[in-house]
Amino acid sequence: MLEISTYNTKQLSTTVKLLITLIVDAILTLKLKKGSHIHTPVLPEQYTFARKISNVWGKTRDFVQRSNLTLFCTSNKQLSKLPLLVPGLRKVYPYYFTFTTFTKGRWVGEKILDVFAREFRAHPAEEYERCIQAGTLTVNYKKVATDYRLKHNDLLANIVHRHEVPVTSQPVTIVHMDEDIVVVNKPASIPVHPCGRYRHNTVVFILAKEFNLKNLRTIHRLDRLTSGLLMFGRSPKKAREMEHQIRNRLVLKEYVCKVEGEFPDELIECSEPIEVISYKIGVCKVSPNGKTCTTFFNKLGYDGKNSVILCRPKTGRMHQIRVHLQYLGFPIVNDPLYNHSVFGPLKGKGGDLGGKTDEELIQDLIHIHNAENWLGMDGDSDLSMFNTRKDLDENLVGHVSPKENTSKNESEVTSTSACEISCDTSKSIPCELSTNKSVIVPSISHRQTVATQTGHESPDMMFNPEKMTNDEHCYECKVRYRDPKPQDLIMYLHAWTYKVK
């Protein structure tokens, strides 16, 4: 039986590492057989909640808690080849990028300006008119007039000034690698693959740039805020084989999480069906109209306030563990989505949404939350820059989570981008380079597409203003963003073990 799990750390000193290993083993009561496990680091957040349910920490507790602060920094050997790394964060300098899409059937015969003004409302029609006239919005890589009527198979290309969202600078570590598969330990906050506002700050890109592991096949995925084991196939044959095993439920998956309240001592089985109520923002609920699914839960410990539990999902529905825990009344303590009063006074316990319809719930979620902090789909599609103007304003400009200080300066928004680079705790360097003109860098080819713009640069430990680009027409260049806080980048849910039956 193949078994891969995570339980120890490489970042702490040898003495503390041994102590933590013994404690975590005791807490999780997992019997480890020699040679049957491949071990990788658990994120420091797991230690933070693991230590709270154990009485054996003693005087070591405070030291380990302080040590966690240093774990958010990486060594020089662990740096990404592209992003700027500041303490705790992996950032990407803004760059020009080409989004492409083929003409949809319903667009044929319509004027290009009318289509963009109606379909992609992130910007007003005047902005798309400017892009068409400037030649940054093209058809078949050729400049056209604003009244050009779209034809079948026309390729639309739009060059944009792209700002990626910072993620944790904790390294993606390789647990196991052979000629068929790669298994990594994914830190929380890093998406698996390019989506929405993430591209270079994704596991796939980091593996390609840091380990030269390219053309990996995604076998399964983890939510952006979920940490833990992630597997990729190195060959089509092996990828299909492992996908078949997962699809046919031949793989036993185990997760560890921290939930609110005292979880029951006995084995709990939840078989409530789950329905996706919005694919766009990635929100689910328990519903008789949903798909069948089952999750088993075991309590591992309780600290008087919260419980650490072991989760065994029998199926793999979207947000299955998180939704089932919400339904049972034991949401993950720092789940920014399913542990929120937007689901009603009971926070969705027992399926009680406070009398809200699905549409009302979705609208409330859009108004209350900063989408980048909780979207289950890790952002919208690759054309998410074309969100509606209304959604863009609500998600970015001055909207903060209820947990944030409501007296926060209105010029500071909760979305996380790279417009202000904090080099250390004592100073920051704003990137107000308004003197730069909006021009397309000559090295950027109009024929470069999503697949070819992969770039490669040496990492920076300090902010380099010479690498900053500014576009006078870029909306995000005009907005001052704050860096995400450590608590914005984690959720206490960790993919612990995969066993092939």
TrEMBL record:
GO terms for biological process: enzyme-directed rRNA pseudouridine synthesis; mRNA processing. The keyword rRNA processing does not apply. InterPro entries: PsdUridine_synth_cat_dom_sf, PsdUridine_synth_RluA-like_CS, PsdUridine_synth_RluC/D, PsdUridine_synth_RsuA/RluA, RluA_PseudoU_synthase. It holds the Pfam family PseudoU_synth_2. Keywords: Isomerase, mRNA processing, Phosphoprotein. It comes from the Eukaryota. The active site is at residue 223. GO terms for molecular function: pseudouridine synthase activity; RNA binding. Residues 180-326 form the Pseudouridine synthase RsuA/RluA-like domain. The keyword Glycoprotein does not apply. Belongs to the pseudouridine synthase RluA family. Pseudouridine synthase that catalyzes pseudouridylation of mRNAs. NCBIfam families: rluA_subfam. This is Pseudouridylate synthase RPUSD2. It comes from Henosepilachna vigintioctopunctata.
